[in-house]
Automatic annotation (TrEMBL), chains A, B:
GO terms for molecular function: DNA binding; DNA-binding transcription factor activity; kinase activity. Transmembrane segments: none annotated. SMART domains: cNMP, HTH_CRP. GO terms for cellular component: cytosol. CDD domains: CAP_ED (cd00038). This is cAMP-binding domain of CRP or a regulatory subunit of cAMP-dependent protein kinases. Residues 22-142 form the Cyclic nucleotide-binding domain. Residues 156-229 form the HTH crp-type domain. Keywords: DNA-binding, Kinase, Transcription, Transcription regulation, Transferase. SUPFAM superfamilies: cAMP-binding domain-like, Winged helix' DNA-binding domain. Residues 251-270 have a biased composition (Basic and acidic residues). Residues 244-270 are annotated as: Disordered. PROSITE patterns: CNMP_BINDING_3, HTH_CRP_2.
Length: 270, 270
DNA sequence: CGTACGTTTGAGTAGTATCAAGAGCCGTGG
DNA sequence: CCACGGCTCTTGATACTACTCAAACGTACG
Protein backbone atom coordinates (compact mmCIF):
# COMPACT_ATOMS: atom_id res chain seq x y z
CA UNK A 1 0.00 0.00 0.00
CA UNK A 2 2.58 2.56 1.04
CA UNK A 3 4.91 2.95 -1.89
CA UNK A 4 8.33 4.29 -2.80
CA UNK A 5 10.88 5.99 -0.67
CA UNK A 6 12.58 3.23 1.14
CA UNK A 7 13.06 4.14 4.73
CA UNK A 8 16.09 2.12 3.90
CA UNK A 9 18.82 3.27 1.57
CA UNK A 10 19.63 1.27 -1.50
CA UNK A 11 22.97 0.51 0.04
CA UNK A 12 21.40 -1.07 3.09
CA UNK A 13 19.12 -3.14 0.90
CA UNK A 14 22.13 -4.34 -0.98
CA UNK A 15 23.71 -5.48 2.27
CA UNK A 16 20.58 -7.29 3.38
CA UNK A 17 19.99 -9.08 0.09
CA UNK A 18 23.54 -10.16 -0.38
CA UNK A 19 23.28 -11.76 3.04
CA UNK A 20 20.43 -14.03 1.91
CA UNK A 21 21.42 -17.53 0.79
CA UNK A 22 19.33 -16.99 -2.33
CA UNK A 23 21.76 -14.43 -3.68
CA UNK A 24 25.00 -15.87 -2.44
CA UNK A 25 27.81 -15.37 -4.93
CA UNK A 26 25.91 -12.92 -7.09
CA UNK A 27 28.05 -9.95 -8.18
CA UNK A 28 27.06 -6.81 -6.32
CA UNK A 29 26.59 -4.99 -9.59
CA UNK A 30 23.87 -7.39 -10.71
CA UNK A 31 22.18 -7.21 -7.34
CA UNK A 32 22.27 -3.46 -7.39
CA UNK A 33 20.64 -3.45 -10.79
CA UNK A 34 17.93 -5.79 -9.55
CA UNK A 35 17.23 -3.72 -6.46
CA UNK A 36 17.08 -0.67 -8.62
CA UNK A 37 14.11 -2.12 -10.47
CA UNK A 38 12.30 -2.96 -7.26
CA UNK A 39 10.26 -0.90 -4.83
CA UNK A 40 10.24 -1.14 -1.08
CA UNK A 41 6.83 -1.40 0.53
CA UNK A 42 5.72 -1.12 4.13
CA UNK A 43 2.68 -2.99 5.38
CA UNK A 44 1.15 -2.43 8.84
CA UNK A 45 -0.16 -5.40 10.81
CA UNK A 46 -3.43 -6.71 9.47
CA UNK A 47 -3.07 -5.21 6.06
CA UNK A 48 -2.70 -7.31 2.93
CA UNK A 49 0.41 -7.34 0.80
CA UNK A 50 -1.66 -8.79 -2.01
CA UNK A 51 -5.05 -10.41 -2.43
CA UNK A 52 -6.10 -13.75 -3.87
CA UNK A 53 -7.12 -13.22 -7.46
CA UNK A 54 -5.13 -10.04 -7.96
CA UNK A 55 -3.12 -10.03 -11.16
CA UNK A 56 0.48 -10.67 -10.20
CA UNK A 57 3.15 -8.48 -11.64
CA UNK A 58 6.02 -9.58 -9.51
CA UNK A 59 7.23 -11.14 -6.31
CA UNK A 60 7.86 -9.82 -2.83
CA UNK A 61 10.96 -10.44 -0.83
CA UNK A 62 10.04 -10.15 2.83
CA UNK A 63 12.56 -8.01 4.68
CA UNK A 64 10.99 -7.68 8.09
CA UNK A 65 7.94 -8.88 10.02
CA UNK A 66 5.69 -11.90 9.63
CA UNK A 67 3.18 -12.63 6.93
CA UNK A 68 0.55 -15.32 6.68
CA UNK A 69 -0.57 -16.55 3.29
CA UNK A 70 -4.22 -17.57 3.32
CA UNK A 71 -6.49 -19.27 0.82
CA UNK A 72 -10.18 -18.53 1.09
CA UNK A 73 -13.00 -20.87 0.25
CA UNK A 74 -16.17 -19.66 -1.48
CA UNK A 75 -17.93 -20.03 1.86
CA UNK A 76 -15.42 -17.73 3.48
CA UNK A 77 -13.55 -20.47 5.28
CA UNK A 78 -9.81 -19.92 5.36
CA UNK A 79 -6.71 -22.05 5.40
CA UNK A 80 -3.24 -20.74 6.11
CA UNK A 81 -1.08 -22.00 3.28
CA UNK A 82 2.16 -20.63 4.62
CA UNK A 83 3.68 -18.46 7.30
CA UNK A 84 6.67 -16.43 6.20
CA UNK A 85 9.39 -14.58 8.03
CA UNK A 86 12.21 -12.26 6.94
CA UNK A 87 14.17 -13.38 3.89
CA UNK A 88 11.37 -15.40 2.35
CA UNK A 89 10.07 -14.71 -1.14
CA UNK A 90 6.31 -14.40 -1.59
CA UNK A 91 4.18 -14.64 -4.70
CA UNK A 92 6.34 -17.24 -6.40
CA UNK A 93 3.46 -19.37 -7.59
CA UNK A 94 1.74 -16.52 -9.37
CA UNK A 95 5.01 -15.37 -10.84
CA UNK A 96 6.11 -18.67 -12.30
CA UNK A 97 2.77 -20.27 -13.03
CA UNK A 98 1.87 -17.03 -14.71
CA UNK A 99 -1.46 -16.76 -12.93
CA UNK A 100 -3.18 -14.39 -10.55
CA UNK A 101 -2.17 -14.72 -6.91
CA UNK A 102 -3.66 -18.01 -5.71
CA UNK A 103 -3.79 -16.75 -2.11
CA UNK A 104 -3.71 -13.57 -0.06
CA UNK A 105 -0.74 -12.41 1.98
CA UNK A 106 -1.59 -10.62 5.20
CA UNK A 107 0.88 -9.00 7.56
CA UNK A 108 0.59 -10.48 11.04
CA UNK A 109 3.01 -7.96 12.44
CA UNK A 110 4.25 -4.76 10.78
CA UNK A 111 6.14 -5.85 7.69
CA UNK A 112 8.50 -4.53 5.09
CA UNK A 113 9.09 -6.10 1.71
CA UNK A 114 10.94 -5.48 -1.51
CA UNK A 115 8.73 -5.78 -4.55
CA UNK A 116 10.44 -7.03 -7.69
CA UNK A 117 8.70 -6.79 -11.05
CA UNK A 118 8.36 -10.14 -12.78
CA UNK A 119 10.17 -9.17 -15.92
CA UNK A 120 13.15 -7.88 -14.02
CA UNK A 121 13.39 -11.05 -12.01
CA UNK A 122 12.98 -13.24 -15.07
CA UNK A 123 15.79 -11.44 -16.84
CA UNK A 124 17.93 -11.68 -13.75
CA UNK A 125 17.37 -15.42 -13.52
CA UNK A 126 18.30 -15.91 -17.16
CA UNK A 127 21.55 -14.10 -16.51
CA UNK A 128 22.13 -15.88 -13.20
CA UNK A 129 20.89 -19.45 -13.60
CA UNK A 130 22.47 -20.47 -10.31
CA UNK A 131 19.89 -18.29 -8.57
CA UNK A 132 17.18 -20.00 -10.58
CA UNK A 133 18.43 -23.30 -9.21
CA UNK A 134 18.20 -21.92 -5.68
CA UNK A 135 14.66 -20.80 -6.34
CA UNK A 136 13.92 -24.29 -7.57
CA UNK A 137 15.16 -25.47 -4.21
CA UNK A 138 12.87 -23.04 -2.40
CA UNK A 139 9.86 -24.25 -4.35
CA UNK A 140 10.86 -27.88 -3.94
CA UNK A 141 11.09 -27.46 -0.18
CA UNK A 142 7.74 -25.73 0.00
CA UNK A 143 6.19 -28.46 -2.07
CA UNK A 144 7.68 -31.02 0.26
CA UNK A 145 6.35 -29.18 3.28
CA UNK A 146 2.91 -28.86 1.74
CA UNK A 147 2.82 -32.55 0.90
CA UNK A 148 3.64 -33.32 4.49
CA UNK A 149 0.81 -31.13 5.69
CA UNK A 150 -1.54 -32.78 3.23
CA UNK A 151 -0.57 -36.16 4.63
CA UNK A 152 -1.15 -34.96 8.17
CA UNK A 153 -4.51 -33.39 7.52
CA UNK A 154 -5.56 -36.51 5.63
CA UNK A 155 -4.79 -39.12 8.24
CA UNK A 156 -3.93 -37.59 11.61
CA UNK A 157 -6.26 -36.58 14.43
CA UNK A 158 -6.56 -32.90 15.21
CA UNK A 159 -4.77 -33.30 18.52
CA UNK A 160 -1.67 -34.62 16.88
CA UNK A 161 -1.83 -32.10 14.06
CA UNK A 162 -2.01 -29.23 16.49
CA UNK A 163 0.91 -30.59 18.47
CA UNK A 164 2.93 -30.79 15.28
CA UNK A 165 2.01 -27.29 14.24
CA UNK A 166 3.14 -25.94 17.59
CA UNK A 167 6.39 -27.86 17.54
CA UNK A 168 7.09 -26.65 14.03
CA UNK A 169 6.25 -23.04 14.84
CA UNK A 170 8.46 -23.21 17.89
CA UNK A 171 11.39 -24.57 15.94
CA UNK A 172 10.97 -22.17 13.05
CA UNK A 173 9.90 -19.03 14.87
CA UNK A 174 10.55 -19.84 18.50
CA UNK A 175 12.44 -17.72 20.96
CA UNK A 176 13.72 -18.90 24.31
CA UNK A 177 12.25 -17.16 27.33
CA UNK A 178 12.50 -18.01 31.00
CA UNK A 179 9.06 -19.59 30.74
CA UNK A 180 9.92 -21.83 27.82
CA UNK A 181 9.91 -21.49 24.06
CA UNK A 182 7.59 -18.74 22.91
CA UNK A 183 6.09 -18.63 19.43
CA UNK A 184 7.36 -15.33 18.05
CA UNK A 185 4.53 -14.85 15.62
CA UNK A 186 1.30 -13.62 17.19
CA UNK A 187 -1.39 -16.09 16.14
CA UNK A 188 -5.00 -16.23 17.27
CA UNK A 189 -6.70 -19.52 18.08
CA UNK A 190 -8.53 -19.16 14.82
CA UNK A 191 -5.34 -18.74 12.83
CA UNK A 192 -3.90 -21.79 14.53
CA UNK A 193 -7.03 -23.65 13.56
CA UNK A 194 -6.53 -22.55 9.98
CA UNK A 195 -3.02 -23.93 10.17
CA UNK A 196 -4.14 -27.40 11.12
CA UNK A 197 -7.43 -27.67 9.34
CA UNK A 198 -9.84 -27.43 12.23
CA UNK A 199 -11.99 -24.90 14.13
CA UNK A 200 -10.98 -22.42 16.76
CA UNK A 201 -13.13 -24.16 19.39
CA UNK A 202 -11.25 -27.37 19.01
CA UNK A 203 -7.92 -25.59 19.22
CA UNK A 204 -9.02 -23.73 22.32
CA UNK A 205 -10.13 -26.89 24.08
CA UNK A 206 -6.93 -28.73 23.29
CA UNK A 207 -4.68 -25.86 24.30
CA UNK A 208 -6.47 -25.42 27.59
CA UNK A 209 -6.20 -29.07 28.33
CA UNK A 210 -2.48 -28.85 27.68
CA UNK A 211 -2.23 -25.77 29.82
CA UNK A 212 -3.88 -27.62 32.70
CA UNK A 213 -1.27 -30.32 32.20
CA UNK A 214 1.39 -27.62 32.45
CA UNK A 215 2.67 -28.20 28.92
CA UNK A 216 1.93 -24.73 27.58
CA UNK A 217 1.29 -21.23 28.79
CA UNK A 218 -1.50 -19.37 27.01
CA UNK A 219 -2.18 -15.73 26.34
CA UNK A 220 -3.97 -13.59 23.84
CA UNK A 221 -2.40 -14.44 20.53
CA UNK A 222 0.48 -15.94 22.41
CA UNK A 223 1.66 -19.42 23.24
CA UNK A 224 4.67 -20.53 25.23
CA UNK A 225 5.81 -24.13 25.17
CA UNK A 226 6.87 -25.17 28.65
CA UNK A 227 7.28 -28.85 27.96
CA UNK A 228 8.20 -29.13 24.30
CA UNK A 229 9.13 -32.78 24.67
CA UNK A 230 5.62 -33.64 25.83
CA UNK A 231 4.22 -32.07 22.68
CA UNK A 232 6.80 -33.77 20.53
CA UNK A 233 5.80 -37.07 22.09
CA UNK A 234 2.17 -36.36 21.33
CA UNK A 235 3.08 -35.29 17.82
CA UNK A 236 5.12 -38.33 16.90
CA UNK A 237 3.99 -41.06 19.23
CA UNK A 238 2.82 -44.16 17.49
CA UNK A 239 1.12 -45.75 20.49
CA UNK A 240 -2.09 -44.36 21.98
CA UNK A 241 -1.22 -41.50 24.34
CA UNK A 242 -2.36 -41.21 27.93
CA UNK A 243 -2.51 -37.75 29.49
CA UNK A 244 -5.22 -35.77 27.70
CA UNK A 245 -8.70 -37.18 27.46
CA UNK A 246 -11.88 -36.57 25.54
CA UNK A 247 -12.42 -33.23 23.85
CA UNK A 248 -15.70 -32.14 25.37
CA UNK A 249 -16.97 -32.15 28.90
CA UNK A 250 -15.00 -33.64 31.76
CA UNK A 251 -11.71 -32.13 32.73
CA UNK A 252 -8.51 -33.99 33.38
CA UNK A 253 -9.05 -36.24 36.37
CA UNK A 254 -12.81 -36.39 36.21
CA UNK A 255 -14.78 -38.68 33.99
CA UNK A 256 -15.96 -42.20 34.27
CA UNK A 257 -13.44 -43.62 36.70
CA UNK A 258 -13.67 -46.99 35.09
CA UNK A 259 -11.32 -47.80 32.26
CA UNK A 260 -9.44 -44.57 32.51
CA UNK A 261 -6.25 -46.19 31.43
CA UNK A 262 -6.27 -46.22 27.69
CA UNK A 263 -3.82 -48.36 25.82
CA UNK A 264 -6.00 -51.38 25.94
CA UNK A 265 -8.67 -50.25 23.59
CA UNK A 266 -11.98 -50.45 25.46
CA UNK A 267 -14.47 -52.97 24.21
CA UNK A 268 -11.87 -54.77 22.24
CA UNK A 269 -10.98 -57.34 24.88
CA UNK A 270 -14.05 -59.55 24.58
CA UNK B 1 14.69 -52.08 -12.13
CA UNK B 2 15.19 -53.13 -15.74
CA UNK B 3 18.09 -51.06 -16.96
CA UNK B 4 19.78 -49.95 -20.15
CA UNK B 5 19.04 -50.83 -23.69
CA UNK B 6 16.20 -48.58 -24.62
CA UNK B 7 13.58 -50.49 -26.44
CA UNK B 8 13.57 -47.10 -28.01
CA UNK B 9 16.39 -45.71 -30.08
CA UNK B 10 18.08 -42.55 -29.05
CA UNK B 11 16.61 -40.88 -32.10
CA UNK B 12 13.08 -41.71 -31.09
CA UNK B 13 13.75 -40.40 -27.59
CA UNK B 14 15.00 -37.20 -29.12
CA UNK B 15 11.76 -36.85 -31.03
CA UNK B 16 9.65 -37.47 -27.97
CA UNK B 17 11.53 -35.10 -25.70
CA UNK B 18 11.67 -32.28 -28.18
CA UNK B 19 7.90 -32.57 -28.38
CA UNK B 20 7.52 -31.81 -24.65
CA UNK B 21 6.82 -28.19 -23.73
CA UNK B 22 9.61 -28.39 -21.18
CA UNK B 23 12.24 -28.60 -23.88
CA UNK B 24 10.73 -26.35 -26.49
CA UNK B 25 13.33 -24.33 -28.33
CA UNK B 26 16.25 -26.31 -27.00
CA UNK B 27 18.86 -27.05 -29.68
CA UNK B 28 18.78 -30.70 -30.69
CA UNK B 29 22.47 -31.03 -29.98
CA UNK B 30 21.99 -30.10 -26.32
CA UNK B 31 19.06 -32.43 -26.00
CA UNK B 32 20.98 -35.26 -27.58
CA UNK B 33 23.79 -34.72 -25.09
CA UNK B 34 21.33 -34.79 -22.22
CA UNK B 35 19.66 -37.97 -23.42
CA UNK B 36 23.03 -39.52 -23.83
CA UNK B 37 23.66 -39.15 -20.12
CA UNK B 38 20.34 -40.72 -19.23
CA UNK B 39 19.10 -44.26 -19.01
CA UNK B 40 15.77 -45.61 -20.09
CA UNK B 41 13.97 -47.74 -17.53
CA UNK B 42 10.93 -49.95 -17.83
CA UNK B 43 8.65 -50.56 -14.89
CA UNK B 44 5.83 -53.13 -14.88
CA UNK B 45 2.52 -52.28 -13.19
CA UNK B 46 2.75 -52.38 -9.43
CA UNK B 47 6.48 -51.99 -9.27
CA UNK B 48 8.14 -48.95 -7.75
CA UNK B 49 10.22 -46.52 -9.75
CA UNK B 50 11.73 -45.31 -6.49
CA UNK B 51 11.01 -45.62 -2.80
CA UNK B 52 10.48 -43.02 -0.12
CA UNK B 53 13.76 -42.50 1.70
CA UNK B 54 15.94 -43.74 -1.14
CA UNK B 55 18.87 -41.47 -1.87
CA UNK B 56 18.01 -39.55 -5.02
CA UNK B 57 20.57 -39.34 -7.74
CA UNK B 58 18.44 -37.89 -10.44
CA UNK B 59 15.00 -37.35 -11.86
CA UNK B 60 12.71 -39.43 -14.03
CA UNK B 61 10.95 -38.21 -17.08
CA UNK B 62 7.87 -40.34 -17.54
CA UNK B 63 7.55 -41.46 -21.17
CA UNK B 64 4.66 -43.87 -21.01
CA UNK B 65 2.13 -45.23 -18.53
CA UNK B 66 0.75 -43.88 -15.26
CA UNK B 67 2.50 -43.53 -11.97
CA UNK B 68 1.14 -42.67 -8.54
CA UNK B 69 3.35 -40.95 -6.03
CA UNK B 70 2.51 -41.99 -2.47
CA UNK B 71 3.61 -40.85 0.93
CA UNK B 72 3.44 -43.35 3.73
CA UNK B 73 2.78 -42.63 7.36
CA UNK B 74 4.59 -44.47 10.17
CA UNK B 75 1.38 -46.39 10.77
CA UNK B 76 1.34 -47.55 7.17
CA UNK B 77 -1.42 -45.22 6.08
CA UNK B 78 -0.91 -43.82 2.64
CA UNK B 79 -1.74 -40.62 0.79
CA UNK B 80 -1.41 -40.17 -2.94
CA UNK B 81 0.59 -37.00 -3.40
CA UNK B 82 0.38 -36.97 -7.16
CA UNK B 83 -0.71 -38.93 -10.18
CA UNK B 84 1.50 -38.56 -13.21
CA UNK B 85 1.11 -39.35 -16.88
CA UNK B 86 3.45 -39.27 -19.88
CA UNK B 87 5.66 -36.21 -20.14
CA UNK B 88 5.75 -35.45 -16.45
CA UNK B 89 8.99 -35.25 -14.52
CA UNK B 90 9.23 -37.20 -11.24
CA UNK B 91 11.59 -36.84 -8.34
CA UNK B 92 11.94 -33.09 -8.62
CA UNK B 93 11.66 -32.41 -4.90
CA UNK B 94 14.48 -34.76 -4.01
CA UNK B 95 16.58 -33.43 -6.83
CA UNK B 96 16.28 -29.76 -6.00
CA UNK B 97 15.84 -29.91 -2.24
CA UNK B 98 18.84 -32.18 -2.25
CA UNK B 99 17.17 -34.76 -0.04
CA UNK B 100 16.15 -38.41 -0.25
CA UNK B 101 12.93 -39.09 -2.14
CA UNK B 102 10.11 -37.80 0.07
CA UNK B 103 7.64 -40.24 -1.45
CA UNK B 104 7.48 -43.46 -3.45
CA UNK B 105 6.55 -43.67 -7.11
CA UNK B 106 4.60 -46.77 -8.12
CA UNK B 107 3.59 -47.70 -11.62
CA UNK B 108 -0.17 -48.10 -11.89
CA UNK B 109 0.11 -49.38 -15.42
CA UNK B 110 3.24 -50.55 -17.23
CA UNK B 111 5.51 -47.54 -17.45
CA UNK B 112 8.61 -46.35 -19.19
CA UNK B 113 10.78 -43.49 -17.99
CA UNK B 114 14.01 -41.75 -18.82
CA UNK B 115 16.29 -41.43 -15.86
CA UNK B 116 18.52 -38.36 -15.83
CA UNK B 117 21.39 -38.08 -13.38
CA UNK B 118 21.17 -34.98 -11.18
CA UNK B 119 24.49 -33.56 -12.15
CA UNK B 120 23.76 -33.83 -15.84
CA UNK B 121 20.44 -32.05 -15.40
CA UNK B 122 21.94 -29.38 -13.21
CA UNK B 123 24.61 -28.61 -15.80
CA UNK B 124 22.00 -28.62 -18.52
CA UNK B 125 19.88 -26.11 -16.61
CA UNK B 126 22.84 -23.81 -16.05
CA UNK B 127 23.45 -23.83 -19.78
CA UNK B 128 19.75 -23.49 -20.62
CA UNK B 129 18.21 -21.23 -17.99
CA UNK B 130 14.99 -20.97 -19.99
CA UNK B 131 14.38 -24.62 -19.20
CA UNK B 132 15.03 -23.88 -15.53
CA UNK B 133 12.29 -21.26 -15.72
CA UNK B 134 9.93 -23.84 -17.18
CA UNK B 135 10.77 -26.21 -14.38
CA UNK B 136 10.00 -23.40 -11.96
CA UNK B 137 6.65 -23.24 -13.61
CA UNK B 138 6.10 -26.96 -13.18
CA UNK B 139 6.93 -26.77 -9.50
CA UNK B 140 4.85 -23.64 -9.03
CA UNK B 141 1.85 -25.34 -10.58
CA UNK B 142 2.27 -28.42 -8.46
CA UNK B 143 2.56 -26.28 -5.37
CA UNK B 144 -0.60 -24.50 -6.35
CA UNK B 145 -2.41 -27.76 -6.89
CA UNK B 146 -1.20 -29.13 -3.58
CA UNK B 147 -2.34 -25.99 -1.76
CA UNK B 148 -5.74 -26.42 -3.29
CA UNK B 149 -5.93 -30.01 -2.13
CA UNK B 150 -4.84 -28.96 1.32
CA UNK B 151 -7.65 -26.43 1.41
CA UNK B 152 -10.14 -29.03 0.30
CA UNK B 153 -9.10 -31.67 2.77
CA UNK B 154 -9.13 -29.06 5.52
CA UNK B 155 -12.62 -27.70 5.06
CA UNK B 156 -14.66 -29.77 2.63
CA UNK B 157 -16.78 -32.83 3.34
CA UNK B 158 -15.63 -36.13 1.90
CA UNK B 159 -18.53 -36.22 -0.53
CA UNK B 160 -17.51 -33.00 -2.18
CA UNK B 161 -13.84 -33.90 -2.13
CA UNK B 162 -14.52 -37.16 -3.90
CA UNK B 163 -16.65 -35.43 -6.50
CA UNK B 164 -13.83 -33.00 -7.15
CA UNK B 165 -11.25 -35.74 -7.43
CA UNK B 166 -13.38 -37.54 -9.99
CA UNK B 167 -14.01 -34.41 -12.02
CA UNK B 168 -10.33 -33.60 -11.97
CA UNK B 169 -9.29 -37.11 -12.96
CA UNK B 170 -11.82 -37.08 -15.76
CA UNK B 171 -10.56 -33.81 -17.12
CA UNK B 172 -6.91 -34.70 -16.82
CA UNK B 173 -7.00 -38.37 -17.73
CA UNK B 174 -10.46 -38.87 -19.11
CA UNK B 175 -11.35 -40.56 -22.35
CA UNK B 176 -14.72 -40.34 -24.03
CA UNK B 177 -16.57 -43.61 -24.41
CA UNK B 178 -20.13 -44.32 -25.48
CA UNK B 179 -21.00 -44.69 -21.79
CA UNK B 180 -19.54 -41.37 -20.75
CA UNK B 181 -16.14 -40.14 -19.66
CA UNK B 182 -13.96 -42.97 -18.40
CA UNK B 183 -11.03 -42.42 -16.07
CA UNK B 184 -8.07 -43.75 -18.03
CA UNK B 185 -5.97 -44.57 -15.00
CA UNK B 186 -6.98 -47.76 -13.22
CA UNK B 187 -7.54 -46.80 -9.59
CA UNK B 188 -8.89 -48.96 -6.80
CA UNK B 189 -11.39 -47.61 -4.26
CA UNK B 190 -8.56 -47.50 -1.79
CA UNK B 191 -6.37 -45.43 -4.07
CA UNK B 192 -9.24 -43.04 -4.62
CA UNK B 193 -9.60 -42.79 -0.87
CA UNK B 194 -5.92 -41.97 -0.60
CA UNK B 195 -6.49 -39.21 -3.12
CA UNK B 196 -9.14 -37.50 -1.08
CA UNK B 197 -8.04 -38.23 2.43
CA UNK B 198 -10.60 -40.79 3.48
CA UNK B 199 -11.16 -44.54 3.72
CA UNK B 200 -12.05 -46.98 1.02
CA UNK B 201 -15.38 -47.79 2.72
CA UNK B 202 -16.52 -44.22 2.51
CA UNK B 203 -15.52 -43.99 -1.13
CA UNK B 204 -17.34 -47.21 -1.91
CA UNK B 205 -20.55 -46.05 -0.25
CA UNK B 206 -20.52 -42.71 -2.01
CA UNK B 207 -19.75 -44.18 -5.42
CA UNK B 208 -22.51 -46.75 -5.10
CA UNK B 209 -24.98 -44.11 -4.10
CA UNK B 210 -24.00 -42.15 -7.20
CA UNK B 211 -24.25 -45.25 -9.31
CA UNK B 212 -27.80 -45.80 -8.04
CA UNK B 213 -28.52 -42.21 -9.08
CA UNK B 214 -27.16 -43.05 -12.54
CA UNK B 215 -24.32 -40.58 -12.30
CA UNK B 216 -21.48 -43.06 -12.62
CA UNK B 217 -20.79 -46.56 -13.85
CA UNK B 218 -18.55 -48.67 -11.62
CA UNK B 219 -16.19 -51.53 -12.29
CA UNK B 220 -13.14 -53.12 -10.82
CA UNK B 221 -10.57 -50.33 -10.78
CA UNK B 222 -12.70 -48.49 -13.23
CA UNK B 223 -15.08 -45.55 -13.13
CA UNK B 224 -17.10 -43.98 -15.90
CA UNK B 225 -18.78 -40.62 -15.42
CA UNK B 226 -22.19 -40.68 -17.02
CA UNK B 227 -23.42 -37.37 -15.70
CA UNK B 228 -20.34 -35.24 -15.21
CA UNK B 229 -22.42 -32.13 -14.69
CA UNK B 230 -24.13 -33.68 -11.68
CA UNK B 231 -20.76 -34.32 -10.12
CA UNK B 232 -19.52 -30.87 -10.98
CA UNK B 233 -22.62 -29.46 -9.29
CA UNK B 234 -21.90 -31.51 -6.21
CA UNK B 235 -18.27 -30.47 -6.32
CA UNK B 236 -18.83 -26.75 -6.61
CA UNK B 237 -22.28 -26.12 -5.29
CA UNK B 238 -22.40 -23.49 -2.59
CA UNK B 239 -25.86 -24.33 -1.29
CA UNK B 240 -26.63 -27.62 0.44
CA UNK B 241 -27.26 -30.27 -2.18
CA UNK B 242 -30.33 -32.47 -2.33
CA UNK B 243 -29.98 -35.84 -4.03
CA UNK B 244 -27.70 -38.01 -1.90
CA UNK B 245 -28.33 -38.35 1.81
CA UNK B 246 -26.62 -39.74 4.85
CA UNK B 247 -23.69 -42.10 4.50
CA UNK B 248 -24.81 -45.03 6.59
CA UNK B 249 -28.11 -46.80 6.96
CA UNK B 250 -31.18 -45.41 5.29
CA UNK B 251 -31.22 -45.26 1.54
CA UNK B 252 -32.37 -42.40 -0.61
CA UNK B 253 -35.93 -41.53 0.28
CA UNK B 254 -35.98 -42.93 3.78
CA UNK B 255 -34.92 -41.08 6.89
CA UNK B 256 -36.61 -38.95 9.45
CA UNK B 257 -39.31 -37.25 7.44
CA UNK B 258 -39.18 -34.14 9.56
CA UNK B 259 -36.93 -31.31 8.47
CA UNK B 260 -35.83 -33.07 5.36
CA UNK B 261 -35.65 -29.88 3.41
CA UNK B 262 -32.25 -28.46 4.00
CA UNK B 263 -31.32 -25.01 2.83
CA UNK B 264 -32.75 -22.87 5.56
CA UNK B 265 -30.25 -23.46 8.28
CA UNK B 266 -32.27 -24.45 11.33
CA UNK B 267 -32.08 -21.99 14.18
CA UNK B 268 -30.49 -19.21 12.21
CA UNK B 269 -33.63 -17.21 11.30
CA UNK B 270 -34.30 -15.68 14.69
C1' DC C 1 -16.58 2.90 30.83
C1' DG C 2 -18.51 0.62 27.27
C1' DT C 3 -17.75 -2.06 23.22
C1' DA C 4 -15.57 -5.41 20.50
C1' DC C 5 -12.71 -8.94 19.90
C1' DG C 6 -10.41 -13.02 21.33
C1' DT C 7 -11.28 -16.65 24.04
C1' DT C 8 -13.37 -20.35 27.01
C1' DT C 9 -16.80 -23.77 27.88
C1' DG C 10 -21.08 -26.51 27.41
C1' DA C 11 -24.59 -29.46 25.02
C1' DG C 12 -26.00 -31.91 21.13
C1' DT C 13 -25.15 -34.37 16.99
C1' DA C 14 -23.65 -34.94 12.06
C1' DG C 15 -20.26 -37.13 9.58
C1' DT C 16 -16.86 -40.65 9.21
C1' DA C 17 -13.93 -43.99 10.97
C1' DT C 18 -13.82 -48.53 12.65
C1' DC C 19 -15.04 -53.24 13.12
C1' DA C 20 -17.02 -57.21 10.88
C1' DA C 21 -18.82 -60.13 7.25
C1' DG C 22 -19.83 -61.47 2.96
C1' DA C 23 -20.11 -61.37 -2.20
C1' DG C 24 -18.10 -61.12 -6.92
C1' DC C 25 -14.27 -61.39 -10.03
C1' DC C 26 -9.67 -63.13 -11.55
C1' DG C 27 -5.82 -65.68 -12.37
C1' DT C 28 -3.71 -70.01 -11.13
C1' DG C 29 -2.96 -74.65 -10.67
C1' DG C 30 -4.86 -79.16 -10.23
C1' DC D 1 -12.16 -76.91 -17.34
C1' DC D 2 -13.29 -76.22 -12.87
C1' DA D 3 -12.07 -75.45 -8.06
C1' DC D 4 -9.52 -72.53 -5.10
C1' DG D 5 -7.45 -68.59 -2.79
C1' DG D 6 -6.80 -63.90 -3.06
C1' DC D 7 -8.02 -59.36 -4.20
C1' DT D 8 -11.34 -55.77 -4.73
C1' DC D 9 -15.44 -54.23 -3.57
C1' DT D 10 -20.04 -53.81 -0.97
C1' DT D 11 -22.77 -53.37 3.01
C1' DG D 12 -24.20 -53.27 7.92
C1' DA D 13 -23.67 -51.96 12.80
C1' DT D 14 -21.47 -49.23 16.08
C1' DA D 15 -18.27 -45.86 18.16
C1' DC D 16 -16.46 -41.48 18.56
C1' DT D 17 -14.10 -37.39 16.86
C1' DA D 18 -14.73 -32.88 15.97
C1' DC D 19 -18.20 -29.68 14.21
C1' DT D 20 -22.18 -26.77 15.11
C1' DC D 21 -24.85 -23.89 17.90
C1' DA D 22 -25.07 -21.06 22.02
C1' DA D 23 -23.60 -18.28 25.67
C1' DA D 24 -20.59 -15.96 28.71
C1' DC D 25 -16.17 -14.12 30.21
C1' DG D 26 -12.02 -11.19 30.19
C1' DT D 27 -9.07 -7.96 28.36
C1' DA D 28 -7.58 -4.43 25.20
C1' DC D 29 -8.69 -0.34 23.35
C1' DG D 30 -11.00 3.77 21.98
Amino acid sequence: MEQRRPGTTEGELLEVLSGYPLFRGVPRESLRALIHMGVERKCPAGRFLFLEGDPAEGVYLLLEGYVKVVQTDVSGQEVVAQVAGPGEPLGLIAMFADSPYPASAQAVSPARALWLPGEALRGFLLRHPEVALRLLRVLAERLHETHRRLLEVSILRVERRLARVLVRLASRLGQRTEEGIAVAMPLSREELAELCGTRLHTVSRLLNRWQRAGWVRLGRRRIVLREPHALVALAEELEPREPPLALTGRKVGEGKTVDDRRGTRPGRTE
